[in-house]
Amino acid sequence: MSTWDATTYEAKDNLLRVVRGEAERFFALASDPARWTAPTACPEWEVRDLVGHLIDVTESYFVSFDAARSGGQVPDALGTQAMQTGLDDGAKALRPLSQEEAVGRLRGDFAKLMEMCEALGPDEWSGFLVPHKYMGPLPAYFYPTFQLMDYGVHSWDIRQGTGQAHGLSADAADLLVPFMFILWQATTNPPVEAEKCQIGVRVNGGNNAGSWRISAGPSGMSYEPGSVDDLPAALDFDPGSFVLTTFGRSNSGTISGDMAVAERYLNLFFRI
């Protein structure tokens, strides 16, 4: 369904609706004074660092959109392997902000970016390239999608830090499913001696259910939709467990076929 394919302009209103809902949940969690310095599912990040991280990345998007609109020069993309250190530095640099200052600043940044995304027209949604600090030029639709990743997954991170049972919302997970293959591609880091493997992924349920054939090895990872019945191993997920597994938050999914192939594949990636 086109309204669940965030690469299409037809999905714009639906995507922004879901992003706003996830952001409000995040703001409610981050505004609790008792949680400000509480641990989260992100190693070495407290709730205040998640807020700082979102300020850091959102304000970097403003610089990127300004450069794309003006034709200005931007530094070369740093690459995804630099993200772990760069994002950690950016988040922790904002620790001196009080909770009120940080959450207020993030709310303002979020409102500004949503206005920018609302203003994107049909041609700009997929045809306007905006330089990402780490990944280089990307179509504009990636930026509200990145916000969904951040607000949806980092809300999960805060809840996980409480030790209480919880889950990921269906709408957020459904919209993110197609982008998880891109995330895997961007974080593939196999050793040079890694044996090439083929594996299938099935996402069962949700608006982006389907099956995909994946090849991975020293040269990277590629994927395409298709039947996985003839492959040596397959991984079955619901949308939420697929998103959380790809982000390295959980070891979920059901393996059928060759367990060694599946586990070799699942350990080809670095975490950001």
UniProtKB/TrEMBL annotation:
Gene3D superfamilies: dinb family like domain. InterPro entries: DinB/YfiT-like (IPR034660), Maleyloyr_isom (IPR017517), MDMPI_metal-binding (IPR024344). SUPFAM superfamilies: DinB/YfiT-like putative metalloenzymes. Residues 24-159 form the Mycothiol-dependent maleylpyruvate isomerase metal-binding domain. GO terms for molecular function: metal ion binding. NCBIfam families: maleylpyruvate isomerase family mycothiol-dependent enzyme (TIGR03083). This is Mycothiol-dependent maleylpyruvate isomerase metal-binding domain-containing protein. It comes from Phytohabitans rumicis. The lineage of its organism: Bacteria, Bacillati, Actinomycetota, Actinomycetes, Micromonosporales.
